[in-house]
Design goal:
The chain is of the alpha/beta class. The chain has one domain (about 30-330): TIM Barrel. Helix content is about 40%, strand content about 20%. It is built from 15 helices and twelve strands. The strands form three sheets. A four-stranded antiparallel sheet has the order 1-10-11-12, covered by helices on one side. It has a four-stranded parallel sheet with strand order 2-3-4-5. A four-stranded parallel sheet has the order 6-7-8-9. Strand 4, helix 4 and strand 5 form a beta-alpha-beta unit. Helix 4 (about 120-135) packs parallel to helix 5 and helix 13 (about 295-300) crosses helix 14 (about 305-310). The longest helix is centred in the first third of the chain and has 17 residues, at about 65-80. It is globular, with a radius of gyration of 20 Å. It binds zinc ion.
């Protein structure tokens, strides 16, 4: 890393020249659902009501074969690379992205999702999670980490949250949660009311009001351990932000998804002032249409250097990987992109490199 004349050139090293280009650290996407890549871009999935939308996605997932999930994951990883995204934080339930990243040589954290809104399902859900972890853990490498994700307050019972939190601590698995996303979620947790509560009661599941915000509820259950990645965090108060800071949790901000589902704006400045590590994520292409992180930064009100920092070193920090990636420095992994810039156009990514290996390149014509 350094000026051309100073960098040692090992024998037989490949030499590439980009005279009119920018060299950037690889981008970090702090929240993806790449196993759903095949469902992206279709207007038929647009559904203004959040609960109905979640149901629709669940139905579509039930109709997808393991092979199709794997293909979707591979396509999603390649799409990331073509956009200069060299690290992803994925939440998913099929393991497809863990397998795809391993097979393709990608970098990321894959949080295995677990569901179970009924207390009576807790043991069965844990068994399923432990089996999945057993299968997927062997795929981990120095650049591919397995974690766990109890999905969201309206799909996970309090006992399941506690069981997953204890398991994650015991097994040293990083944790990610969807948290503070919608007003309906707040109503569900605080009052035990609203559409999520009605739907679960309709299935014979008993729901209690917690008289607390979703953040305070999960903090009380021990879920918000150090480094826990909290996805969305739109519906948060200053006290919630303080709780997240104290816990050492980090945040994945998904501005375009929040706006597509009309959840509102997250208080970015509150998190910044509190010093909570915060990265940007696209969420799923089913919500936002594509994996354009620059558009996310723009939607977050960030520009130029602020956007670049958010998509690189701050994203790395949110995932606990700032010592390995996020900036071009001696001693860090060679995760980088080369792009050419045309006025009034989005830059064209010419080359993407993960850990010193070319994973995407536009051939010179
Ligand atoms: Zn999500």
């Amino acid at each position: 890393m350094g000026p051309n004349v100073q960098v040692p050139r090992p024998l037989r090293a490949q030499s590439l020249h980009f005279p009119d280009a920018e060299l950037l650290p690889g981008l970090v996407n702090c929240h993806t659902h790449l196993e759903l890549t095949h469902l992206g871009g279709g207007a038929q999935h647009r559904e203004p009501e959040f609960l109905k939308w979640i149901r629709r996605i669940r139905e579509l997932k039930e109709r997808t074969s393991p092979e199709a999930f794997y293909e979707a994951a591979v396509a999603g990883v390649r799409d990331c690379w073509a956009r200069g995204i060299t690290c992803i934080a994925e939440t998913g339930s099929t393991g497809a992205v863990m397998r795809a990243l391993r097979d393709l040589g990608g970098r990321g954290i894959v949080y295995q999702e677990v569901f179970g809104p009924d207390r009576a399902q807790c043991a069965a859900s844990m068994l399923e999670l432990e089996e999945a972890v057993l299968q997927l853990r062997g795929l981990a490498t120095s650049q591919l980490v397995l974690g766990v994700s109890p999905h969201a307050p309206y799909t996970v019972s309090a006992s399941l949250y506690e069981a997953v939190a204890a398991y994650a601590r015991r097994e040293r698995l990083p944790v990610a949660v969807h948290l503070g996303e919608s007003k309906e979620e707040t109503e569900f947790v605080r009052d035990g009311a609203g559409p999520f509560a009605d739907a679960l009661r309709g299935r014979g599941i008993s729901i209690e009001p917690r008289h607390a915000s979703p953040v305070a509820y999960l903090a009380g259950l021990g879920v918000l351990q150090r480094g826990a990645l909290c996805i969305h965090c739109v519906q948060v108060s200053p006290a919630d932000v303080e709780l997240l800071r104290e816990a050492g949790a980090t945040v994945a901000h998904c501005p375009r998804s929040n706006s597509a589902h009309r959840h509102g704006r997250m208080p970015l400045e509150l998190f910044r002032k509190a010093g909570v590590p915060l990265g940007i994520g696209t969420d799923s292409v089913v919500s936002v249409g594509d994996l354009d992180l620059w558009a996310e930064a723009e939607a977050a009100g960030l520009a130029a250097a602020g956007a670049l920092r958010a998509l690189t070193i701050e994203g790395a920090r949110a995932l606990g990987w700032e010592a390995e990636i996020g900036s071009l420095e001696v001693g860090k992994a060679a995760d980088l992109l080369v792009q050419t810039v045309q006025p009034s156009n989005r830059p064209t990514v010419q080359l993407t490199v993960v850990s010193g290996r070319i994973v995407h390149q536009i051939s010179a014509t």
